[in-house]
């Protein structure tokens, strides 16, 4: 379920994956993962946990950079 925090409307959701599937894999099956600009207005973004990709539209706080570490 993807909800944008500024207006709390559901923007996208994924169905059909069993509970044993990792969140990141289930996320790849959503519309927002394949075409984020269709669902997220320009200059907007959404928060996600560290299982999701860090993109300009998908902010992942405290994600360890590749080859780096969190301080």
TrEMBL record:
The residue ranges of the DDE Tnp4 domain are 1-71
Write down the required cofactor(s).
a divalent metal cation
Recorded protein name is: DDE Tnp4 domain-containing protein
Note whether Protein transport occurs among the keywords.
Answer: no
Q: What is the taxonomic lineage of the source species?
A: Eukaryota, Fungi, Dikarya, Basidiomycota, Agaricomycotina
Keywords (A to Z) from UniProt? Metal-binding
In terms of Pfam families, this protein maps to: DDE_Tnp_4
Query: Which terms in the Gene Ontology molecular function aspect does this entry carry?
Result: metal ion binding
């Amino acid at each position: 379920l993807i909800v944008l925090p500024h207006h709390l409307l559901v923007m996208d959701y994924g169905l059909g994956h069993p509970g044993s599937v990792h969140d990141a894999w289930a996320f790849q099956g959503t519309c927002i993962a394949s075409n984020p600009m269709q669902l997220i207005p320009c200059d907007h973004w959404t928060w996600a946990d560290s299982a999701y990709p860090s993109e300009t539209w998908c902010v992942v706080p405290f994600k360890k950079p590749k080859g780096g570490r969190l301080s």
